[in-house]
Amino acid sequence: MQYSNIKFDRSGNADFYKTLQKRVRKYFKDNNTTRYGNGAMIFKSIFMIALYFVPFILLLTVVESVWLSLIMWLLMALGMSGIGLSIMHDANHGAYSKSKFVNSFMGGLLSVAGGSDAMWRIQHNVLHHTYTNVTGMDEDIDPGSVLRFSPHEERKPFHKYQHFYAWFLYGMMTLLWITVKDFKQAIRYKKLGLTKTESASFSRMLTVIIISKILYYGVFLVLPLIFSPIAWYFTILGFLMMHFITGVILGLIFQSAHVVPSSNYPMPDETGNIKADWAVSQLINTCNFAPDSKFLSWYVGGLNFQVEHHLFPNICHVHYKKISKIVRETAEEFNLPYNSEKTFGSAIKSHAMMLKKLGRQDQV
Known about the structure:
single chain, mainly alpha, two-stranded parallel ribbon
């Protein structure tokens, strides 16, 4: 079924989102602020970029110890994750700044992690945010046959062990990005007509992907191999370790918000109609975690407030904590769920329980 044929039923609970939007707009008006980033966002951006690039420069110049070099790669992993979660993410949603140039520049920082911002916008903005947890539409729950993230997918015998091995595969996430994933997505999205959502032509997008990959490998792998006094195999180990850690972090943050027991995985009928209001479906298929953890919220770009992010992706994450009270109270007023885990640990536990359930439950 074509993506353009999928429609959400607006006949039920439509007043919830209208009321919520009105209240959130009032919040910004009453507080005389905008939905974009602020000084705290600028400081965080500088910090995360420095956390990625300073250890890299040290690797090329002064670090001579193997163990110290691995610590530098570890810090780079934290910086890479921070750039993706706290900067690039908001920018590619147009929420970082009023300036399209600033959003484009900050969103393009994905290239320093080896990924394509154009492919990310299609997968994340167009597919994941529109069709959250819709099997066959949301690619975030389609990691391939090795994992089963949806009850509507075929269950294979080895899936009953996925709650053990999934964590290792999360570590492969960014390694796939820097190698084959962007190219596969570009070809698939072109066939589906999804590349039209980007302003650039397909040939230009493909050219940018190729050039950015060459530059990425040239800078972040070849230069350390040439200039670092560390043995080449430790340099490659550090590079792989950086991506593995980043993949695990990203996997835990995003999958713990959607592949959880409270999700209902809506499916369209034969006419392409999903019997749920879009905003209500976001509430059901999204879960917050650790709302009281200031450090976690700061580091992961407010993505522990996934409910608020999915309902208002064009609002910068620095505002999520404040508007979460409005979202929760409005959901309760309309007798709608507002899913939230008290801690990050409990969110991961719920995700593990869902992996186990999906590994043993027959296809719906």
